[in-house]
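Sequence in, structure out. Go.
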Amino acid sequence: MTRPDTRARRQLALMLAPYLVGLVGLVLLPALVTLALAFTSYDLLRPPTWVGLDNLVALGDDPIFRTALVNSLVFALIAVPLRVLFALGLALLLHRRARGVGTARTAALLPTAVPEIAYGLLWLWLLNPLYGPINQVLRTGGENGLTALGRTPPQWLTDPTDARAAIILMSLFTMGETFVVLLAARRALPRDVYEMAAVEDATGWDVFRRITLPMMAPVLALLAVRDAIASLHFTFVPAFVVTDGGPPPYSTTYLSLFVYQTGFEYLRYGYAAAATLVMILLTAAAVLVQWRLIRRYRRFYRL
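Output:
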């Protein structure tokens, strides 16, 4: 007769089986194939040939790859803190129950639920320099197509700096998941601490600086690292749909778009796999930073 614990373990194994099959078939095996192709020359027409580290060396000498790498790092350094701060501000603003709060929370989460292609096409219309709503609003109060300050509106699709700013702006409105996590973290904080702060007549800034921020710091650190990792592919759809990697010279070409163009447009699969390997190494570095931050916080918290 089967023991209850054995039966429960068997049921758990059966429940996990579809996930494990998907994990192995859709994640682990493609990752191993990509790792192997990174050291080969493969164009889908001829069998792959072993080239060792030649692809990685060529990436170091490739100015387009270096540009894509710098663009990706700059995007992460600017967009990730802005996304986390934006989500934190909304979470602190909307954590209390009040009239209209539910609608505001839904509005904050809604852009995340929109399909990425549709989201990119929407922003392609919003950012149109001639008749896009954003520039139309900026021209309000101005003359001869200028803003109220007498300056030319941003050329979101043709100016390199403005195009990079547009990609960052697009990413700010897809922080719904970060907002939900921070909202849950804020609502989970103990009320007793805030009641004691109110008794001591602490100001709002003191409460945020001495209570809210320290208690939410671990969650903020995890979300920042998670966003830094995800930023490697956040930029693909906006750069592909809205700017197509331009304006010249490769102003919005990021690592994800570089890999796509190299592999699927130029059929240099081995070279694209080597670039993907670099992305994996960057992800591993971000995970290492996350692990060190968690360990440091735990040591500080125990002290």
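Check: The chain has one domain: 23-101+162-301. The CA atoms of residues 15 and 206 lie 48 Å apart.
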